[in-house]
Amino acid sequence: MHEFDEEIDALAAKILEYSLIRLKKDPPLDGPWSYEELYSEVGETITAKGLGGEKALDIFKHVLAQACISTDHPRYLAFIPSAPTESATLFDLVVGASALYGGSWLEGAGAVFAENQALRWLSDLAQFPSSSGGVFVQGGTVGNLSALVAARHSARGKFPGVKRWVIAASSQAHSSIKSAADVMDVEVLTIPTDRNEKMQGSTTAFEIDKYHLANPDHRVFAVVATAGSTNLGIIDDLKGVGQIASERGIWYHIDGAY
């Protein structure tokens, strides 16, 4: 299993050949198959003897890959789950082959260094202060959850004795905000939007103050604004919402994943 023998060498050649052909050709749009169609073509993938590398690659190439929408297709406009440039795809292969773990400086100093360089560049583009930092995660859902957990951790040290924590977000916020709230066991205060579906600072201030007055043992620990909603590309009143959050000592999170 862990030796690069003739069988693995042959499999590697086939994998590299498939990867190069796939990258060079016009990407197929493809699309989802039904469970029945997939089972009819694939059958059981977990067997007592195993499929073997070449059989597994054949199933992937001719069935599984074709049952997935190609995110690098020029007509794929619905979602943005990845950045499928040729260079990015090739470096996925490089990183995978290098068996890296970038979770700590001890085990992955080179990877962490490169990550920090990229984060510094992004921070400078956004005109964040030199003290800013961050970490790359798999997507916007995990990013929102990570940021909101950090926000609650910060609030717990500032506001002891709170019985219920609350996130303020608009009705147009990404569904991952509600999912994060469920995972964290916190409430969501929905802020009404204006006629253009934007969350405004004045409305946000009014709703938060009203909520705190009616629920003195609850606390809004984070306000989530959106810099480009997934459905309509709406950008909230980022400056106005940020100002009212700052005035109330509330963590301000901008979901800019889209």
Question: Which characteristics define this entry?
Answer:
9 helices; single chain; Aspartate Aminotransferase, domain 2; 258 residues; 48% helix; alpha/beta; 3 domains
Proportion of beta-strand residues: 5-15%
Number of domains: 3
Give the overall silhouette. elongated
User: How many H/I helices?
Assistant: 9
Q: What is the helix content? A: 40-55%
Helix-strand string: HHHHHHEHEHEHE
- Main sheet characteristics: 4 strands, parallel
Identify the strand order in the major beta sheet.
2-1-3-4
**CATH homologous superfamily placement of the largest domain:** Type I PLP-dependent aspartate aminotransferase-like (Major domain)
User: Which architecture of the largest domain per CATH?
Assistant: 3-Layer(aba) Sandwich
Radius of gyration: 23 Å
In the CATH scheme, the class of the largest domain would be Alpha Beta
Distance between the termini: 41 Å
CATH topology of the largest domain: Aspartate Aminotransferase, domain 2
The helix-and-strand class reads alpha/beta
Describe the structure.
The chain has 258 residues and is α/β, with parallel strands linked by helices. It has three domains: 92 residues; 34 residues; 116 residues, 3-Layer(aba) Sandwich (Aspartate Aminotransferase, domain 2). The chain is 48% helix and 10% strand. The chain has nine helices and four strands, in the order H-H-H-H-H-H-E-H-E-H-E-H-E. Strands 2-1-3-4 form a four-stranded parallel sheet, with helices on both faces. The longest helix has 21 residues. The radius of gyration is 23 Å and the shape is elongated. The model has no long low-confidence stretch (mean pLDDT 93).
